[in-house]
Amino acid sequence: MRRSGKLFVVSGPSGAGKSTLSKKVVDFFDDLRFSISYTTRRPRQGEVDGVDYRFVDDERFEEMVERGEFIEHACVHGKKYGTAEKDIKEILANGMDVLLDIDVQGAEQLAEKIGSGVYIFVLPPSMEECRKRLMKRGDIGPEDIEKRLRTAFEEIKKAADYDYIIINDDLDGAFERLKAIIIAERSRKESLIEDVERILRSAK
Ligand code: ADP
Ligand code: 5GP
After folding, report:
1. Which residue has its alpha carbon closest to ligand 2 atom 15?
2. What is the pLDDT of residues 77-96, one digit of tens each?
3. pTM of this structure
4. If you placed Cys at 6, which of 36, 62, 97, 98 could pair as Cys (CB 3.0 to 4.6 Å)?
């Protein structure tokens, strides 16, 4: 019944569990699509080009920047990341909601540009747990882990700018809360006003 697609933005420090939660939630809702970002970083083990990210070289990324193809883009931990405007438009035009896993700089740009969307900040229960998760993921060395934790400190200061905060302690609980946010947002009167009118018309 819903007509206008919604944009859900998930941000938070590296290791908080954003990709884990994003994957679970797009698998759960048939009408929610993941926005596949462009990045200049290398794929991690198990990551698939065109599924997790579109992996591109620096030259291709810069061409896209110059052509104004990104609705937002940023440099995160020394690599470039961006969201193609065309991808988002396509998903929304197909009547789907879209979920973006992007950093705080990208979320700020998006909020400024489109002025709508549901902004969700995911936090680890502690920085020690965040460190453990990054170690467990095993894709970066100890020096990079410490760098990400220092960046995390700055990122977490932005949490209050978001609409919702999820502390990802227990994964199942965090997933339930993310689902609850999406369901509640889809039930906002602004999303359903056309249905109210349709029901009224049907009573005539
Ligand atoms: P992010 O995308 O925020 O960088 P990931 O989703 O890659 O984080 O999660 C980092 C690591 O922590 C992964 O190995 C993931 O399996 C694990 N993880 C995610 N959520 C939890 C949780 N609630 N409890 C324990 N481990 C978790
Ligand atoms: P990772 O390399 O661990 O997958 O992601 C690193 C950071 O880049 C995360 O904070 C993630 O949210 C962010 N990120 C992923 N895609 C995009 C994007 O398209 N734009 C922006 N601004 N950040 C992104």
Report:
1. 102
2. 899 999 999 999 999 999 89
3. 0.95
4. 97
